[in-house]
Amino acid sequence: MCGIVGYIGPRNCVPILLEGLRRLEYRGYDSAGIALVMNGKFSIHKKAGKVADLVSLLNAGNSELNAQLGIGHTRWATHGEPNDTNAHPHWDAKKEIAIIHNGIIENYLAIKTKLLREGHTFESSTDTEVLAHLIGVMFERTNDLCSAVRMALSEVEGTYGLVVLSTRDSGKIVVARRGSPLIIGVGEGENFVASDASAIVEYTRQVVYLEDGEVAELTTQGFQTMTIDDVKIDKVVEEITLELSQIERGGYDHFMMKEINEQPETIRDAMRGRLLLDEGDVKLGGLTDVMERLLKAKRIILNGCGTSWHAALVGEYMLEQIAKIPTEVEYASEFRYRNPIIGEDDVLFSISQSGETADTLAAMREAKKKGATVLGIVNVVGSTIARESDGGVYVHAGPEIGVASTKSFTSQLTVLALITLMLARAKGMSREDGKVLAKELASLPDKVAHILKQTETIQALANEFKDVRNFLYLGRGANFPVALEGALKLKEISYIHAEGYPAAEMKHGPIALIDENMPVVFIVPRDGIYDKVISNIHEVRARRGRIIAVANEDDREIEEMAEFVIPVPRTYGFFGPIINVIPLQLLSYYMAIARETDVDQPRNLAKSVTVE
Q1: Selecting from 3.30.720.120, 3.40.50.10490, 3.20.20.450, 3.40.50.720, what CATH number does the domain 456-595 have?
Q2: Interatomic CA distance for residues 374 and 391, integer angstroms
C-alpha cells in the first residue's frame, strides 16, 4: 500500500527513483510522482495511473532531468480521489518543502482548519498536503528541516512513513516513521530510503530499519537517528539477503503464475531444517524461548486479515484436532475494538505475509498490552511484527510480488502444520504417529508439483465460465477455509462476485441463487465427511447448478455427479488445504487472463495494507 523511494548522493537520481517505483508497483497504487531538487528549486512531476504514465509525462518534457537529490512515491488513495492533483509529492505554501507520505493523518481536519484561518490555501484533498504546510510553518520558526519535522509530528495523530526535502536545507533528506514501514539504505557517499528493500536492493544491501517514533536525517556523509523528542539513537546496520532474481518475473507472463509455480519449493523451504523425519518431530528455533508458555497456554488465538485469516481458520482445525489445544480465530481488524478478554495464559499468533499489516500489528500490540504471549508467523524478515513479537516463525516463501497471495498462503499453512506437530509431540503424541504425519508433510511439495503439471482442465474451465457473474465455493471441515480462499482469489483478480460457504450452510440461504447459470465449486476429498459433501452436491444437481469438483484422483464416484472434475492427490485430512487450494489459485489466474484483467495489480487492492 503506497511506495516510497528516495536518494541523496552523487548520481543522477531520476533513473534510481523510477526503477524503485517500478519495483514498488506490486504494493498497489493509483498514481505516482517524483520531486527533484534542481538548481535550488523543486521540479515536481506526478500523474494518476501507472508508473509508465509518469514516465511518459517525463519523456514529453523538453529537457533532460538530472538531480542528485530526489524522492518518489506511488499512492493508494485514502483522502481524495486518485487524480494528478492528489498524487504525491505535495509541498508547503511557499513551495520550499516537498513531502511524500504513507499512512493517514487522523487529525488533519483540525490542523487544516487552523491553517486556513491563518491564510493557507490548499490545492488537493489530501491529508498529506496539510502535513506539508504544517512542516512549512515549523520550518519558518526553526530554519532547520529536521527540527521542523519533529515539531510538526508532535502535533500529529495517526500513522506515517514520511520523507521530506527542502530547497532551503537541501543537503539532506529527513524521514520519520509511525505505523508505516521505512528503511534506510546505506551506501558509500550516498544514502537511500524506501518503504521496502525491493526498491533499493540493486544499489545496497546494508539497511537500517526505522522503528515507530523514530526520525532520521540522511546526507551524503551518513545518517543520524533520533526520537521525535530529539533523543539520539544508535541504530544497527543489517544486511538483507534479497536477490534481484527473486523480484523479477523469470520468464513468466505474470508474477502470480511464477509464484504459484514456486510453491513446491516454498513449501519445502518452510520445512527445511525444521521437520525431523526420523524422530517424527519438529524443531522451530524461533519458538524455543516460549515453548513452556505454549505448552501451558489456556488457549491459542490466531489472527490475521484476508488470506492470512483463512490460513488461521485451517490452523484452528489443526491445533484443536491434532494438538488438542483450544484455539480461536479472530479478524485482526475487529479484535482490539471489542476489548477482548485476554490474560497471561493466552498465546496469540499474528499471521501476516508482510509483517506490516496495520490491523494485525495493532491486534498484536493490544494482546501484548494485556499480558499475553505474542508470536508472529510472517514472511518478511525484519518486519515490524517479527521485531515486536516475543518469538515466531518465518514462512520463508521469498518475496511475493503478486497482490493476490498464493505461495505465502501455502507456506503459512505449512508452518501452522509444523507448529501443530511440534506441540502434539510435546504433549504426548507417539513417535510413530509423529513419523506418519512428518512423512506426509514431506510428500506435499511433490504432490503440489504434480498438480501444476495438469493445467489443461483448469484453462478450459476458465474459458467456459469467463462470462459468468457469480461463483459459489463450498467445502466442509478444514476445506471450508479453502472455499473462502478460492472465492477471494476469484474476486480479487477477475472481479467476478464469488462467495465461499461451509457446504452444509448452502441450504440456509445461498441455495436460492442456484440455477443452470450458477457454477458451484466443491472441495470434496475422500475424508470422513465425504458422504456429507456428496449429499450437498446432489442438492445442487437437483437445481441444475453447474458442478466443478476438486476431488481425489482415484475418486470415480465423483465423475458421475460433477460436470467438471479437477483431480488432486490424496493426503492426510488436515493437510489437504495445502493441496486443494492449488487448483483454485490456477482457476482464478486463468479466469483473469480470459477476462483480460490486471493479474498482478488488481484494481483498488494493495499488497501490504498499512492503514486501517
Answers
A1: 3.40.50.10490
A2: 7
Classified as helix, coil or strand, 6 is strand
| CA 252 centroid distance within chain | 21
User: The C-alpha cell of 582 is what?
Assistant: 492449488
Q: Tell me the β-bridge partners of 186.
A: 191
Q: Report the C-alpha dihedral over residues 106, 108, 110, 113, rounded to 10 degrees.
A: -160
For the chain, where do the domains classified as CATH 3.40.50.10490 start and end? 251-450, 456-595
CB 68 within 8 A of CB 12: yes
Instruction: Please compute Rg for the chain using Cα positions.
Output: 26
pLDDT single digits (tens) 174-227:
999 998 889 999 999 999 999 988 899 999 999 999 999 999 999 999 999 999
Q: What was the pLDDT predicted at 310?
A: 97
Catalytic residue list: 2, 607
Q: What are the residue ranges in the chain where pLDDT is below 70?
A: 1, 62, 244-245, 606-612
Q: What is the model's pLDDT at position 62?
A: 61
The CA distance from 522 to 480, in Å, is 10
Q: What is the DSSP letter of 572?
A: -
- Residues 278 and 257: their CA atoms lie apart, in Å, by 35
Q: Which H/E stretch holds residue 493? A: helix 480-494
pTM: 0.80
Spell out the residues 6+ positions from residue 591 whose beta carbon is closer than 8 angstroms to its own.
462, 465, 466, 490, 493, 494, 496
Give dist(CA 394, CA 378) in Å, integer: 5
What letters, b where the CB count within 10 A reaches 16 and e where it falls short, cover 233-260?
eebeeeebebeeebbeeeeeebbbbbbb
Q: What is the DSSP letter of 167?
A: S
* Chain-centroid distance, C-alpha 303: 14
d(CA 489, CA 405): 8
Residue 510 is placed in which grid cell?
445461498
All 3 cell numbers of residue 108? 488533519
CATH of domain 251-450: 3.40.50.10490
Tell me the fold of 3-246. Glutamine Phosphoribosylpyrophosphate, subunit 1, domain 1 (3.60.20)
Q: What is the CB neighbour count within 10 angstroms for residue 320?
A: 17
* Residue 177: burial class (beta carbons within 10 Å; 0-12, 13-18, 19+): buried
d(CA 333, CA 305): 7
